[in-house]
Amino acid sequence: MSHRTFWEEEIETLPRPKLEQLQLSLLQEHLAFAYQHSPYYRQTFNEAGVKPSDFKHLEDLSRFPFTNKKIERDRQLAAPDLGDMVAVPEEEIVFVSASSGSTGVPTLSPFTKKDFDDFQNVESRLFWAAGMRPKDRYLHALNFSLFVGGPDVIGAQNLGALCIWAGTVPSDRLLYIMKEFKPTITWTTPSYAWHLGESALKQSIDPKRDLYIRKIIVAGEPGGSIPATRSAIEELWGAELFDFYGLSDIFGACAGMCSAKNGLHLAEDNILIEVLDPDTQEPVADGEHGEMVLTTLKKQARPMIRFRTGDIVTRFRDICSCGRTHARFTVQGRIDDMLIVSGVNIFPSDIEYVVRGLPGLTGEYRITVYSEHRLLRFDVDVETIEGYEAHGERLAQQVIEQIKQRSGVQPRRVNVLPNGTLPRATHKAKRIVDLRNTEELAKGAGI
Ligand SMILES: [Zn+2]
Question: Which of 338, 357, 368, 374 could link 433 by a cystine bridge, Cβ 3.0 to 4.6 Å?
Fold first, then answer.
């Protein structure tokens, strides 16, 4: 059993026409269910003048209204505690996760027993695609407190791996667990993988030689799909990195990398993906950037119909070399983090791509955004590794040129700082300092 390539071969390799047929019939049923049982969907479908019976082809989904984080939060506040997007009586709900609430009131994400089992089956599938097998020991070091990624350890356990439910513990404790219990796979953010590896080296533990981690799953930041960031972490740990993508509104992980590592496979039998131009909401072609809009196909506790994720992605639907037919995507970044400089879109991940790839730099960076004569400008702070301090000017020039080459625009200034100047992130890195609002406020106050 552990020699098989797929967790569920038939569904993962379903030819696209059959996969789309499956999506169509699941979604016809799901829309009808949402309309019948969720006051929110009934109201918004009525307002948009659409009925579930209007959905005859997958393209008909474009006639149905969008939802987003703000609507989710507003509807929760309007009908506490779970909101009127919910489509089942509370006694059928067995689990809720909550978003971090970093941009407002935390939103609750409810699951029925079947939703939860479907969720964990998708997690098992993604873990299997990343190479986890029953002989592995999986160290689950994600937050268990309300976080939707917490229960993903059950997916690993259902797969047959030996699971160590560590949760978020201090780095020293985690390194101790890694030495004593010899886990072979773990899951964290790219920032934390780097931080933990460096902490180990400071304690004279060489992650490559003294620990047993051979695969690291990362999520929560774009680094896992940026080649130079990936290879820096892989080199530090002597491990292979697999990028996953999840969101509290749907599943802890909705998509993950396979061994081909050319994008993240979405579980398309559970979730339908649209990639739309963020301004016109028209579909973009495969291979082009657009906002990812996700629709659940089975999740009954709270169906998510056309949820605007705020993530800019590129999608591919050709068959992957691994044999899976489910769509793959790569994430460029959050729409909120996108900078429009001289009419060109640029993401922090474009800068990271350059900074991590240049020898002589630590890979840490900070972007400062401001306006000058009403035009958006940005500066980039980077750090040299020890021994490269004398090459600051040359490195700054290289950073400017390579960012320009990659994105078409360039930073106003690149400041090369000594190693250790920039703040180190432990979990999620904050890379942008936005001075635009402060400048406007200062002007408003006559300063
Ligand atoms: Zn693949």
Answer: 368
